[in-house]
Design a protein that fits this description.
This protein has two domains: 124 residues, no CATH class; 34 residues, no CATH class. Helix content is 14%, strand content 33%. It has three helices and nine strands, in the order βββββββαββαα.
């Protein structure tokens, strides 16, 4: 929560705030997220406007997850920009309050809560398929070895059991010389 009392209700007044806060729980998606309690660094400009307070800034976090191809641990530094208007909660105009959507953020007295805005921006900036490297080869589908660790990794060509009988027949019907018919 940031205190906006210094701004008063004087449109045009502003102040800059730099802060470091612990990350809330469940800030991420299934494969990658920001660990709970890790640092979120933010630089925020608070500006008084007629309707309330406009918060504009940048936040920096480090997301941790797994590569979707090889399952190695990855760390992804993120820098997200945000801008959100927090309207004054006058409470004396029920028609205006009802006309505003649920998406409108409100000041709680002189305090504004940046967590919902940061949560929205960070989760949207996370890579849906994080990779340890852009050219990650992944895992071998046969044995599961990480292909980046074993570049020459290969298996013998497996014969489909449905075709095994035909390969045996093909072996017995081979001509000794595959040069074609005799030409005299």
């Amino acid at each position: 929560m940031l205190d906006t009392r210094e701004l008063g209700r004087r449109p045009g007044s502003e102040r800059w705030v730099s802060l470091t806060a612990p990350a809330p729980a469940e800030l991420g998606i299934d494969v990658i997220g920001v660990p709970e309690g890790s640092d979120i660094e933010a630089s925020v400009r608070l500006e008084a406007v007629i309707e309330g307070v406009l918060a504009t800034g940048t936040a920096r976090v480090v997301a941790v997850g797994e590569c979707v191809r090889c399952l190695e641990a990855v760390e992804v530094p993120l820098e997200v920009d945000f801008q959100e208007l927090y309207v004054y909660d006058d409470g004396d105009d029920p028609v205006a309050a009802e006309a505003e959507s649920d998406e409108t953020r409100r000041l709680e007295g002189d305090l504004l809560d940046l967590e919902p805005v940061l949560r929205d921006e960070v989760v949207l900036a996370l890579p849906m398929k994080p990779l340890c490297a852009p050219d990650c080869a992944g895992l071998c589908p046969v044995c599961g070895v990480r292909l980046a660790d074993a570049p020459g990794h290969a298996h013998e060509a497996e014969i489909d059991p449905r075709w095994a009988a035909l390969s045996q027949l093909a072996g017995t019907n081979e001509r000794p010389d595959d040069s074609g018919p005799d030409e005299e």
